[in-house]
């Protein structure tokens, strides 16, 4: 379903306003760094409360002000995305003056678990991953997504903090619409409510399906299911670090499974990663395919 996603080429002359100089933008702003920063603040003996609240302030400032995010102010680019994804069949045209087109670099957070959202994020294109972090810092990847998809519905209606983080895997684009500009209009708009309901129905369908595989399938079956989901005759499993987080398998155990698949002739090791060598045996191992 994500094959429909295509790139809108942005000319070099586009006016982009950035919150900080590009040289200061980090290549990776990890959720583990945030946990480490807060843990440092909470464990300090001297002026513990002062240090903790300072650390908390830094994290809040970076996340809630989207310190590294860029806003694209070129109206032609805005209209190109809006037309391509038929945005104003979902949102009323009256919302256009209140919307921003935002661009995020690779490994940036669009929003972070535990914080209050103040608007809708309509993810247009660019691969992202949805992460949930436990109190001890362990992460699980709930889903990979390429868009288009809307985020913020539960927070719009319930006012709860975000239950998961959204992190980019490549340059990504979102429309942003603040709640205080649209709340009265959208909660009564039938086209928007229909789209939001359809969006969450699809999310529930995918989540329930994938959760069942992870709960009921042994580890080898999960790995086989994931490989079949990729449905590729070319090289697969090039970037291994995120896959076990999605499958609910320890990283070392995941590598042992891959090694056993190679020994059994199911996979072939390549310079870049792994390639499926025996699809029939993969299908026998897999109980079902993941929905990505």
TrEMBL record:
Record-annotated Cyclic nucleotide-binding domain positions: 99-177
Top-level taxon of the source organism: Bacteria
Pfam family, one: cNMP_binding
Protein name: Cyclic nucleotide-binding domain-containing protein
Source species of the chain: Schaedlerella arabinosiphila
